Amino acid sequence: MPNVYLRRTNRRRWLAFVTACALLVAGQLWLHLDSRQAFTGVWAGLAWLWDNFMPDQAAWHDLPTIAYQLWRTVVIAIAATSTAAIVAVGLGLAGATTTGRVRWLRGGVRLFASVMRNFPFVAWALILLFSFKQNDFTGFLALFLMTIGYLTRAFIETLEEVGGGAIEALEATGARYWPIVIQGVLPAAIGGLLSWVLYMIENNIRDATLVGMLTGTGIGFTFDLYFKSFRYPSAGLVVVALIITTIVIELLATHLRQVLTH
Amino acid sequence: MLTITGLNKTYPNHKRGLKDVTLTFTPGVTAIIGPSGAGKTTLLRSINRLITPESGTVVLGDQEIRTANAKALRRVRRQIGMIFQDYNLIEELAAIDNVLHGCLGAKSWLAGILGRYTAAEQERALRLLSEVGLADFATQRCADLSGGQKQRVGIARALMQEPQVILCDEPIASLDPASTQAVMTLLTDLAKRGLMIIVNLHQVDIARDYADHIVGVNHGQIVFDGPTSALDEVALAKIYHKEAVVTDA
Amino acid sequence: MTQAPQPPVRPLRPAQRATRGLLLTLAVISIYAGLTMQTDHLDWGVAVTSFWHNLQLMIAHPHLGQDTWPALWQAFTNTIALALLTTLLGAVIAFFLALATARPFAPRLLALAMRSLMAVIRAIPTILWVLVYATVIGLGNEAAVVGLTFHSVAYLTKAFAEAMETVPPAKLAALRATGCGFWLTVRHALWPEVRASLLSWTFIRFEINFTNAVAVGAAAGTGGIGYNLFMASAFNFDFQEVGLIVYLLLAFAIGLELIAIRMRRHLAH
Questions:
Q1: Facing C13 at nearest CB: one of B96, B123, B141
Q2: Which of A30-39, A50-59, B53-62, C50-59 has the lowest mean pLDDT?
Q3: Which chains touch C (3 or more CB pairs under 8 A)?
Q4: Touching check for A240 and chain C: CB below 8 Å?
Q5: Hey, where are the domains in chain B?
Q6: Range of the domain at A46
Q7: Rounded distance, CA B59 to CA A112, Å?
Q8: Which residues of A touch B167 (CB under 8 A)?
Q9: Which of C20, C133, C14 is nearest to A49 (CA)?
Q10: A57-77: pLDDT as tens digits
Q11: Do residue A36 and residue A121 come from a single domain?
């Protein structure tokens, strides 16, 4: 008896494989990509990086500036994420099926979160720059707006993990809404919520460079300045500082997440 | 005294509903038995209005519950403790915190939000925990307790309310035999102190062993209501009779 | 009863201590940031009014502006192709690198070296790679492809390796025991176990790469819809055109999100 199942899965496998290859080729053609140039460029780029970005004596003189800007960037990223988290807790409570009492509000919150999550942050950065000019607050606002959507969605899921049953049990004792939320739901969910906050802080510090370039603030602006004025060794020092900061924050966040959720 | 009259509840799929249920509960252990989907849980949850029936009345003391406003409902719910098959504790919190939750409803809104419990309340919570045999586990996280221990925390939480009635929704369905015995003995002891214990059960033999009074439910109707001694084979056949389908129009 | 029971002394669990410490730290840093935030040349009233006005222009009155539909479409598809290509390329490379990183396969030292290398590459922002390659091989799609791929590879290698590590070693050993070589084991024991997880990570990366493709277009000028966005906003101050582009991007991204939700449901079965 011919095995229909095997034949069908084989056909599907081939289909997936061929589609993937076709997409790869189509993408290259579409972008008029010179693959050989791109490929050899990889090594050329790394070599160039090594030759030009190595911090030299002059670059070390910029270290205080770089360290200060980096510190400001990290602080702003943390503040923006924390502020967004406070707002997101409120939205999350309104949006979660277990704690959200108003159906249209639940739907509204979810829609809002989805739009904010997918709103191109380049657009935020650019329109904020236009109105709020080039200063710390612009970077803060851009990161804040980028974070709200992500955190709201994540918080909704985390809050829903505190079962409806436990909330129902507290309702059955005659307790009111806010005591239930603050004494019951939030203490149970706090570990998960903070894990997400840590994740977003990590992410936002990574993205802060890009946001900084677009809004002319923080370490991103510092890098842009050095890069555009061909002070490559100083730009290299920025990169080294960024690598160290990001890895330290990543390790710290990973460790804290483990402690928090146990 | 808890009186139910003419209670009706329908669901879209015609299962688990209630049809014109009239009952009077008295202090002691009352077991509600019946096949799955007969409406046991609906009946129990109608009492503290976790489910709102379409018509009929539920009266505890002189308070009607089905149509009570939010404030009156909260007040009457304080007199009705409830324990669940899945315990429904806040697992991340310590046992004592979960017990203290029992008096959230009796506190002012602000004190509830701030979680300010008086020394007397804390003492009472501890005493209740030792009464259910968990004195040494007060500061343990509930997630780390066994099923039987969690259920006893649930009972302590219900007792913290100083209730007249305790509703038990399949309290032993997830427990091993030893824990089952511990929990059921605890419930009968409470009944001896004058509490009204209403318990949904799957197992007829457990109901026979521990209950004073038995209510049999089938297809949303009361088919048996009498003392445990009156539960004979005829009554059981009526309660668990599958063909006795009351035809839905 | 002779003595009332004493309220218990509660030792804090490590998780509780970490929670309190972290909350306090975040609060202190946020307050510090608020107090020291530099707001030079900022007139709050004007800023908020103008921001609100521009937001309204964007949302309520999108228009084409100085671009043309074909040009915008070309740029939009360019960005999508960029995201697609770099994600696929990244996924293929990352799969093989993950084999050298995941604990069940890789020797300890190699795994550690790979892990560190990937962490370093991930720590360097995508935009930096693109800027560097734009300098070396010229401004254009090639620079964007190489730059985006770099970060994708590092990200996916970590994700893939972690997915592979969740496969119980016994399953791999079972196949090895039948005499299968390395690649056969990978193909018949590992692949079926991790396929779903790898696919969903790749999809997540596709969403990230789409965002990044827009961003590098704007910040490095490598082309694509990001560049149009940048020109419309920073050069022409035409927020109505920004609105139109935002709507385009939003539609695509939300479409992707819906597909992702569908896919996750499909994979869950």
A1: B141
A2: A30-39
A3: A, B
A4: no
A5: 1-79+164-174+194-249, 88-162
A6: 4-52
A7: 44
A8: 172
A9: C133
A10: 888 888 999 999 999 999 999
A11: no
